[in-house]
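dude i think i finally got it to work??
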Amino acid sequence: MFKAVLFDLDNTLMDFMSMKRISCEAAIGAMIDAGLDMGHDKAYNKLFELYGKYGIEHQEIFQEFLMEVRGEIDYKILSSGVTAYRRVQAGFMRPYPHVRATLIALRERGVKLGILSDAPRMRAWLRLSEMSLTDFFDTVITLDDTGEMKPSPKAFGAAAKGLGVEAGKILFVGDNPERDIKGARDAGMKTALAKYGQIFPDGKAKADYELKDVQDLLGIVGKK
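look at this
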C-alpha cells in the first residue's frame, strides 16, 4: 500500500492553464482600453509567444510584451494589464472538482501528502493559500528549494526526504509525461498521469495509472 501521494500543482490540483488564458484575455483587454494600439487576438498571440520564450512563470512578462510591441514601457498600460490579470486570477484560483474531498479521504487513511512544483516558492504557496489547501500537505517542495526543475532527481529526492517515505512507497501524480512521470519513475516512485489536466502530449514515459478524475486515486491508494 502506498504510504504517501506526491502531487504536481499546476494542471494537477488546479486548472492552471485555463486560469492563465482567462487572466491574459482580461489583461490584454485592459491594456487596449488604456491605450495599447493593437488588435486583441494579435496581442494575445504575441503574449503567449513570449511566454514560450521566457517561461510560463516569467514575472515580468508584461514588461517584455510592451518592450516587444512598443519599444518602451508605458506604465499606464502596464499597470492596467497587471491589475486586470491579478483580479481575474484571484477569482479563478480554485482546485479541480473533487480535489478537496480526495485529499481529506487520503488523510483519513493515514496517507502522507506532498507537493512538488516547478513554481517559485511564493507563487506555489499563494496558489495553495488561495485554494485553502495549505493545511493538507506534509511537505511542499518548489523550484526555490532545490534550484532544479522536474525531472531532476534532486527535486524528487528532496520531496521524498520531506515526506520521510522511501520512493517505492510514494505515488506521484502529475500532468506532464516527460517531466512529471519520467522524473518520478526514474526516482523509483510509482506514477499516475492526471489525464483530466494533461496539456502536454504523451511521450515515451508511461504512467502506472491514468486518472480521469482526481478521485480515482482512492481506488488506487487503497490497493495492496
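The chain is about 50% helix and 10% strand.
im so relieved honestly
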